[in-house]
Amino acid sequence: MPDALKQHSFEPLEFVSKSTDKLEEAMLEMGVEKIEPLSIFSDGVYVRKVFMPAGTPLVLGHEHKTRHLNVVVSGKALISMNEGEPIMVHAGDVFESKAGVRKALYILEDMEWMTIHPNPEELRTEEDIEDKFINKSDRYKEYASSKLLNSVQEIEETTVWHLE
To answer: Apex CA 132: angle with CA 137 and CA 48, to 5°?
Structure first.
């Protein structure tokens, strides 16, 4: 387990039951990488597919606004929904999440995961999809805004450096 996790006392078998607020705070202190989803569309349906490599120390999803299906395509993980008791999920599992659910995961084997959402409005842009289906915490929005500002500053500094 990485040292940054040890300092926050998140052991693999217990971290998923920690308060999502405390977990998010610790993750943002360490720095996070966004997991880029693959978006798949069909008539009235939106599928969001992600890959999470084994050993990914912490995965904390945003709160979902709608009821939807979850499909574990491959892999194995410990998961807690809304700070509930951790359960093991593995390839072939299909289950429903209610609106308001936030999931925390510890990835044990390389995992492909899909969420399946009704999409009667036929939304296609990332912004529209995220507005419809997820709630990002204020803490995350502040962090993302700060990272964007730092990225813009780095680009500007790099651009100036290249022009001189």
So the answer is: 90
